[in-house]
Specification:
The complex is a heterodimer of chains A (115) and B (111). Chain A is mostly beta strands and 115 residues long. Chain A contains no helices and eleven strands. Chain B is built from no helices and eleven strands. At the A-B interface, strand 5, strand 9 and strand 10 of A face strand 4, strand 5, strand 9 and strand 10 of B.
Chain lengths: 115, 111
Amino acid sequence: DTEVTQTPKHLVMGMTNKKSLKCEQHMGHRAMYWYKQKAKKPPELMFVYSYEKLSINESVPSRFSPECPNSSLLNLHLHALQPEDSALYLCASSQDRPANNYGYTFGSGTRLTVV
Amino acid sequence: GQNIDQPTEMTATEGAIVQINCTYQTSGFNGLFWYQQHAGEAPTFLSYNVLDGLEEKGRFSSFLSRSKGYSYLLLKELQMKDSASYLCAVFFSGGYNKLIFGAGTRLAVHP
């Protein structure tokens, strides 16, 4: 299995809703990441987990709450989002130190719309 | 910030060669990646340069010069399916992993 699987693919939520994005990989990667991507912009790093511990939080608002239940799973809990949070949310994984023939493996993303 | 700069858009003709440049004002990174991203899809890995010089992989080659703060991606024998965004990204690893993307270059390949 050489994929990162994200669910759901599309999500529409109201500003008072609570929802979660899920990400799963079975490549034995020990680093997992959340990125946010707005239209025609590059992915922006949100969180990094290394060996199931949060190692980087790029000053992300607390309405986004990451969770890494085990080495294969990464969740992003959403609460009280704003319309400007609408974006493509990408999950990625990598070996602890990516080699030149691996890099990061990205999921196909969850397209989130906040109404 | 890392100030990673790429041209916003480029156009090229099918069968031609195109070079996409990336300049950066950062140091201490482990390597530089190039990714391809079709609209609405995940970025896919193209190449990774650690040392200065040229890395060749089929129709794609990538070059890095750390002293000049410069990289480029060279695409040969362009095909229509190469129309996509191309993202340059620097990778930091020092007890943590951090991949920071440039703004990306949207390439349109015409017949």
